[in-house]
Design a protein that fits this description.
Order of helices and strands of chain A: EEEEEEEEEEE
Distance between the termini of chain A: 31 Å
Shape of chain B: globular
Oligomer: heterodimer
Largest interface: A-B, 25 and 22 residues
Shape of chain A: globular
Strand content of chain B: over 45%
Number of helices of chain B: 0
Largest sheet of chain B: 5 strands, antiparallel
Structural class of chain A: mainly beta
Radius of gyration of chain A: 13 Å
Helix content of chain A: under 10%
Radius of gyration of chain B: 13 Å
Distance between the termini of chain B: 41 Å
Largest sheet of chain A: 7 strands, mixed
C-alpha cells in the first residue's frame, strides 16, 4: 500500500460524457501527478500540482482538466469522452530528498468509455 | 529533445540473471529511477541513481553512467514474481515535467 488513494477503481461510461477521478496523496506530500496509461502503452504524464498550484503540464488534452484542493486531494476531470480515452489513470504523490524524487503511485482508476 | 530507449521485452528463466538497459537523452538530467509494474497494478519505486556507479538493493542493482547517458537494472536470482514491466525514468529539472516514463520493458520469467 503506497498510501495514495484513488477513487473510483473502475468507471464505465459512454462517449460524450464527463467524469471526475479523485486522488488523495500520502500524508505530508504536497505534489500530485496524474498519468494516463493506455493498453500496452507507457505512462503518459498529464499534469502536476504542488500545494494547490499547477506546476507542470504534459500531454494533457484540452478536454481534460485538474485541480488540487486546500486539503491537497486532487481531481482530474475528463469531458467529452471518446473511445480512445479508455485507459488506466494513475495519480502519484512524491517526496523529494537530496537524491531526487520518489513517486508513490495510487492503485489507479480504470476508465472504460463505450 | 528528449528520448528514452529500453527493450520492449526480455525473457529469462527462474534463477537466472537479467539486465535491462536504458539509454536516454534529456536536458537538465538529474538522476535515473526504476519502477516495477505488475499487470493491472500500480508502478512501484525500485531504485534511484543520482551518481555514476552501481546501487544495490537485495536482488536488484541499478547502474548509471552519466557520460554515456546509459543505465541498467540488474535482476539476480530471478523469481516468477519478477515477471512485470520495468520502467526506467530519467529525472530532470528542466522542461515541462520532471519524470519521463517510456513504454517499459516487459520481463517474462519462465519456470
Amino acid at each position: 500500500d503506497s498510501g495514495v488513494t484513488q477513487t473510483p477503481k473502475h468507471l464505465i461510461t459512454a462517449t460524450g460524457q464527463r467524469v471526475t477521478l479523485r486522488c488523495s496523496p500520502r500524508s505530508g506530500d504536497l505534489s500530485v501527478y496524474w498519468y494516463q496509461q493506455s493498453l500496452d502503452q507507457g505512462l503518459q504524464f498529464l499534469i502536476q500540482y504542488y500545494n494547490g498550484e499547477e506546476r507542470a503540464k504534459g500531454n494533457i488534452l484540452e478536454r481534460f482538466s485538474a485541480q488540487q484542493f486546500p486539503d491537497l486531494h486532487s481531481e482530474l476531470n475528463l469531458s467529452s469522452l471518446e473511445l480512445g480515452d479508455s485507459a488506466l489513470y494513475f495519480c502519484a504523490s512524491s517526496v523529494t530528498t537530496g537524491l531526487g524524487e520518489t513517486q508513490y503511485f495510487g492503485p489507479g482508476t480504470r476508465l472504460l468509455v463505450l | 529533445g528528449q528520448s528514452l530507449e529500453q527493450p520492449s521485452e526480455v525473457t529469462a528463466v527462474e534463477g537466472a540473471i537479467v539486465q535491462i538497459n536504458c539509454t536516454y537523452q534529456t536536458s537538465g538530467f538529474y538522476g535515473l529511477s526504476w519502477y516495477q509494474q505488475h499487470d493491472g497494478g500500480a508502478p512501484t519505486f525500485l531504485s534511484y541513481n543520482g551518481l555514476d556507479g552501481l546501487e544495490e538493493t537485495g536482488r536488484f542493482s541499478s547502474f548509471l553512467s552519466r557520460s554515456d547517458s546509459y543505465g541498467y537494472l540488474l535482476l539476480q536470482e530471478l523469481q516468477m514474481k519478477d515477471s512485470a514491466s520495468y520502467f526506467c525514468a530519467p529525472y530532470h529539472t528542466s522542461g515541462t515535467y520532471k519524470y519521463i516514463f517510456g513504454t517499459g520493458t516487459r520481463l517474462k520469467v519462465l519456470a
